[in-house]
Design goal:
With 181 residues, the protein is α+β, with helices and mostly antiparallel strands. Helices cover 46% and strands 18% of the residues. The strands form four sheets. It has a three-stranded antiparallel beta sheet, with no helix packed on it. It has a two-stranded antiparallel sheet with strand order 4-5. It is elongated and about 80 Å long.
Length: 181
């Protein structure tokens, strides 16, 4: 039974019963020259499977490192978005949403109060479906500061993690960056 190796993608295909290679495939290629070489460092040259040059391996490694960094930073960004919108405790048993809509609502409340078109006390929704009543200007300032500090702490920690990822020079270094926020 024949095995076929595609010369460009270096993917294997088992014989479909015809024994015929498709365009760009090598039939039962000799791998004796690359037995100890990871397949990511193989290439086809002159109809044979050979080991890449040091320069070609460096290109493969750089692409792999870049892909790992992009994936890790995307995961950090996704976690940041989740954490920022998870909610902040404003009183015992009272957690308000920190979603974009809730944050905008609180900003509008702040602006309206500052312009004299909103009066306090004012109830706002909590994450459990209840309400928390903002009692006065001091309470509004306290909650705004809690929200700001909560979100900035999460965002700044995410930025620090991203910087660690960008500074990593190896795949192990990227993997070592752990988002435990």
């Amino acid at each position: 039974m024949a095995r076929f190796l595609h010369g460009t993608t270096l993917t294997w295909r088992e014989d479909d019963g015809t024994g015929a290679a498709r365009d760009g495939e090598l039939t039962n290629p000799d791998l004796s020259g690359v037995e100890a070489v990871p397949s990511k460092y193989w290439k086809v040259a002159g109809g044979s499977v050979v080991e890449m040059t040091t320069e070609e391996k460096a290109v493969v490694d750089a692409a792999e490192l870049t892909a790992a960094k992009v994936a890790k930073m995307a995961a950090i960004d996704a976690n940041t978005a989740t954490l920022v919108s998870a909610g902040v405790s404003v009183a015992t048993g009272k957690t308000i949403s920190t979603s974009l809509a809730a944050t905008q609502n609180l900003q509008n409340l702040w602006i309206g109060f500052q312009q004299g078109i909103v009066t306090l006390p004012k109830p706002i929704s909590t994450t459990d479906g209840g309400t928390y009543t903002i009692t006065d200007n001091a309470d509004l300032i306290r909650i705004a500061a809690l929200l700001r500090d909560f979100q900035l702490t999460i965002i700044e920690a995410g930025q620090s993690l991203r910087a660690d990822v960008l500074a990593a020079t190896t795949l192990a270094g990227v993997a070592a960056v752990e988002d435990s926020r």
